[in-house]
């Protein structure tokens, strides 16, 4: 019974309840007619297009016709060095099917033919609906369009379309060719049976190199006829036609595709699960030896690029002339140094391979590519191009993360704490260690990156964000980071695989000040007639970071001083005649070692390890095994070029201590007695500069996603705040135990000195002598009346500002002899009273001395009375002047603290000969000190007046410290590691 009326009724019912019902009947009718008319016009257009492209279709009966074969030649960038000639001589042996695949009625078996499982392997890999379609698959085409729109390379061609593409049409990428391919596929399906098409396919399709057809491939790669293939071998050959060069040069990819084909065969019911398991266990080695080739890994990389553009048949038969980007001289240097580097250290560090890529950063042209130590050495899988293989980069990935941090607002001076820290994650606690298991406390990102420290790197990745970092890496050209679920905070330590070629090109973006370009290997392609098919032209590229951010990472990576605390001043990471930015990397358990570095005109990267991923011996760091190869290559490759410097960056000054290279701390002047802020009344003896610090992680001061914005309202809202804070406190506790020194923490006082106030000042009056009293003798007596709220500690006595002595006991009477150096005339006597905290009060009177002073000169001339001496050096030279040295038998120099009765001899000099004596005084502690000198001679004893000097610590000075001889000058207020970390030693 037909359901059409019911369906029609349902449709009408739907329309009656739709918005169409509200349209005028005439308008609805016109719309329907319009849609029908448009459909007819479109159909006519499609038919017209098909008719146009069909007028010159090749005859599908000419499948076996052959044109004259010409070889493709691949040259270096000069066109003078022939690297390789791709021969067009086809290796082809025709063979039939062993039995029918699509026609189940045919049961004959040809034991000399292609085994059924070989056909099934190809069907599973390339066209599972081959027996049902009529030359094309609508579902396959739609799936391919969908995948390509989402950035995935996917083919939707049937076996018949592949046959047309390879045997009849050219590989030009035009819509008209695709339409021709579709029409011819339909025509071939009409003219030939399915089994005939399969037989033609297996004798026509290229399997790599010059091997056309499965029989030729079997004989060349496996040294056997196709009839003798095993299931695993058949699946391996079935994997090749998709991308022969790629799979032949990457055994791991070939193995993965083979195993996928075996799984697909089991899924389709062609083989059992046991057969699948057994086949996967079979190890297969393909014979792919080639000769007469230079730069073989580069050549086959270029060959694959050509095949992707023009198709394998055209590359191998149409006589192309290809000019590549390769610098032949640099390639020879690279191959030589890779070989020498492996031979020099391979045995002792248990590695047998290395790879090198060099790029011109201004153009991203590949100048050298060494995929392995020896292309022809099968024992090391020499034909594998490691430059194109994903390997873990170790710490050489850190510059990517730090650059992303600079882009976000962090700076090379940002302070991070290199202390043991736990990072809670959904899968447990992640607790990274530095490679040497040590901690360095607070330090700048400059020091952290150049020291290749792991803990600060993980913190900077968290601050930037994993997704943001990976997006930035992909903008730099990395193609191996797609599956985000694999990655965590260990990405910054090299936990994500990268390709050496893409890694070097990312560093080229730094050298090129933020502009990225895809790596270039082909400069020009001509056909056999000399027509230019493609030619490289300079392109602007894409800016992925601001110039200054690129300059900052280059400035950091070229800072040899910042690296020296870990790697030493002299290392393989320096070039003798020019600045260079460089980073090493070493993976866990020493599976991979890297060095990548650049000047403004050359970038090179070196990988060292084993292709089978076996570990090297302990100590095989990138700086040890990869850096010597890199250094030798760079030194020779740049020998003929003048030195270049990197453009100096502008290091941002944000106004935030933690971003500008300082621990968050406050230095104030306090009163030692009250421990409060000093005032104008606080005496110098009680004034003290003190720094107060509360040591916190960066999360305490900034919002990680907006570091230049306001501080967080509640830092503890960050999920890592507590663990980062705990890491700091735990480390400081360990440091206190290790050094025995208490780390001072606290906040600066906000209240002011309330001990030294005018109300506490002593009251002083000189009772005797009175004002303007005259003295015939130099012996005088001074009587003072003094009192104070806190009591009187001492009273000091001066004449004309020179210290005479002091009295600590009431009544305060001081008897003294005025020194002979004080002449006749008017002088001022002064009494200064101090309480227990040096609050002071004073009183003065004038007197007249009628007694002549000594005629001889005996004075301390340096320092001056009242001079302040900063403790810049540990000693000070005291100078004493005398007029007739011969009259003196000895001179003694003393120092004492006022009111302490601790007079100490500095030096005793017998029989002075010079009128100027110099005495080295080892400076005592800060405070006021009295210097005096006493001479014994023919005329008795002579004394100088006591002079008071003030000893202080050096005042803060702003100096300049050049971080890098080729870069900007960074203020000394940006601390280096020892300045940031004053309570520990390196």
Described by the principal axes of the CA atoms, the overall outline is elongated
CATH architecture of the largest domain: 3-Layer(aba) Sandwich
Ranges with pLDDT <50 over ≥5 residues?
Answer: 1-24, 43-66, 150-154, 956-979, 982-986
Which CATH class of the largest domain applies here? Alpha Beta
Number of structural domains: 6
3D architecture notes:
The protein is 31% helix and 22% strand. It is α+β, with helices and mostly antiparallel strands and 986 residues long. The chain folds into six domains: 4-52; 72-93 and 113-324, Biosynthetic peptidoglycan transglycosylase-like (Penicillin binding protein transpeptidase fold); 331-637, Beta-lactamase (3-Layer(aba) Sandwich); 663-739, no CATH class; 757-854, Immunoglobulins (Immunoglobulin-like, Sandwich); 856-955, Immunoglobulins (Immunoglobulin-like), CATH 2.60.40. Strands 33, 35, 36, 38, 39 and 40 form a six-stranded mixed sheet that branches. A five-stranded mixed sheet has the order 2-1-5-15-16. A five-stranded antiparallel sheet has the order 7-6-20-19-18, sandwiched between helices. The protein is elongated.
